[in-house]
Amino acid sequence: MILKVKWQDIPYWRLSGFYFLFFLTIGAYMPYWSLYLESINMTAEQIGILSAIVVITKIFASPTWGWLADHLGKRVKMIQIASLFSFLSFCFVFISSEFWPLFIVLFVFSIFWSAGLPLIEATTLSHLGEHSSDYTVIRIWGSVSFIVCVFVLGYVFDKIAIDYLLPILLLLMVLVWLESLTIPEVAMESHADDDKPFMSVLKRPSVIFLFLVCFLLQASHGSYYTFFSIYLKEFDYSNSFIGLAWSLGVIAEVIVYLFIHRAIKQCGLRLLMIISLMLASLRWVLIALFVESIAILMIAQCLHAASFGVYHAVAIQYIHREFKGSHQSKGQALYSSISFGAGMAAGTLLSGYLWDVIGSSETFLIAACLSLFGLALALYGLSD
Q: Are 292 and 235 in contact (CB under 8 A)?
């Protein structure tokens, strides 16, 4: 990994450390939270709702945090405050395992948790300045930690009860907060777009189509992030294999992050986004129809390199290009809100409803249709 910007000019290890710990937490939560909910006798619909609430709040919380950060010029301070209250609010999951108490706790927790990622993205890009293509060299550590976490916990939860997930998550959130205290603030650079109203940037056709594509692609991931572990359990795969399957997907993502900056220069953003949408559709079809084949399932997991790795790296560059200066935090927050918030919430709620109604494999085929719809919009409206 080689940075074009000098390492001593940016807080490389402190930024990388935050990504590492943040995604260590995601690696514990994402594959195993649904299994924990299933262990306390939640229905598929309840699991869908309790998983969706964490992303639904991004729809309004992420833009609010982004506006505050841009208005106050204190992105890192907002990250520190939000990380602290994420930990404090999550403590209340120990009070009750009933649906409504958990719903309330997760709702409050996710308001604060939704601030961290879009604000650290904006902070990282500000530190990189004109070398924004080096973003993935820092972001890659988040993927590495995700791999480590899901792989290790897969074996751990074969030996101990899934209930231990709660204290593990709490400990990781404390570490995220402590790491946030080490990150230096970075001054926001002025830009000509600072004088333009935010809504004028938002109304550009290229921006509208970008957000629609991001919404649909992340909606297609809803069934995967919420029910993939349960889906594999239905076919008698072990927790250790589930952890391995999740890890393989993110290993492929890491490989993409090592080379994506070159691919962006050679292929352009539009073509890479189109390829990502095509391969995402193929991935959901393979998971739907060939789950009992370990070889094909592993191929499908490797396609995570495209369905998320290529997509996210390209989307971040699109957002960085379209939203400049004092609009940067708001742009990153809106991207998080529309894709990982509204898109993921829609996909999660839809899959939670469809899972018991039409079946698990059919739900993944619906996911393929969503990404194909996104492909059609990308072909029509994305700029290069």
A: yes
pLDDT bracket for residue 269 (50, 70, 90): very high
Q: Which fold has domain 13-381?
A: Growth Hormone; Chain: A; (1.20.1250)
Q: Are 315 and 338 in contact (CB under 8 A)?
A: no
Q: Which of 209-213, 233-237, 260-264 has the lowest mean pLDDT?
A: 260-264
pTM, to two decimals: 0.79
Q: What tokens were used for 267?
A: 């292929």
CA 295 to CA 126: how far, in whole Å?
42
Q: Cβ(63)–Cβ(242) under 8 Å?
A: no
Amino acid, single-letter form, for residue 283: R
Q: How many Cβ atoms sit within 10 Å of the Cβ of residue 241?
A: 16
Cα 347 versus chain centre, distance: 13
Predicted confidence at residue 136, as pLDDT, reads 81
Please state the domain extents for the chain.
13-381
